[in-house]
Predict the structure.
Amino acid sequence: MSSARAWLTILFSTLLLCAAPGNSQTMETPQADAGPATVAPAQAKTLTNASIIRMVGANLSDDLILQAIASQPGKYSTDADALVDLKDAGVSERVIAAMVNKGRKHLTAGGTATDDPPPPPVSLPLVNEMGVYYKDRKGAWQPLSVEVVHSRSSGWIKSTVTQGIIKQDMNGHLNGRESKLPLQAPIEILIYTPEGVDAAEYTFLRFHVHSNSREFRTLTGGIFHSSGGAGHDEVEFHASKIAPRTYQFTIDHSVGGGEFGILPPGTGNITNGGKIYTFAITE
């Protein structure tokens, strides 16, 4: 019995030691969920000439590239050689102009030169081909109808920028009595010209309508707006340049209704058929 009692005494003492505060095992307290870690926003990549050339090579539209130039920092090389390289790589003049403007400096009130502030998002016409366009009800630029015009007089010069302008009447003839494109004023018109051509070299014409044709009379040689005179069918317009080779003007209600056309310059000898952009204005 004594040995059993001694054994119980030792067991009881051991249990008391384990229960003592100083000898208790440390239990880890679960930490409260701190939630997901905060990730710092990624810094926008600085665009370079190579970035723009890659975007052009990927067939991204000018509008997307212009938005990238406006919204992201850029460090562009725009010296003469760099501009030629950009042009050779297929970068449009609108995009090149945006790159040049991005790198310009301005003077602060203290006279120090700083980078231009970020420009507002650009909104340029989505026009990639030479031609004449109108803005539809959704705000998109659509090409005007193209018809064949025949000349009934000789002396039509090959280019309005040719020296020795010939001041000679030209009678234009179109088959059919009306255009397939009826529009209502006011009409926003956009002209995307060839390189080196101004919108003033285009001619806005009112047609005389016959039973099965339309005709007009004008002067050749790029003097339509200054020397049209009575008896000619030019309609005066004033286009504003909004981008390289890109001009815009509005036809208001004062023009009235009828059949109209916009004749491009440099058509050549159109005795056997040239191009004219046509539309009707309905009242």
Observations:
- The mean pLDDT is 75.
- The first strand starts at residue 105 and ends at 107.
- Helices lie at 2-19, 49-57, 62-71, 80-88, 93-102, 224-227.
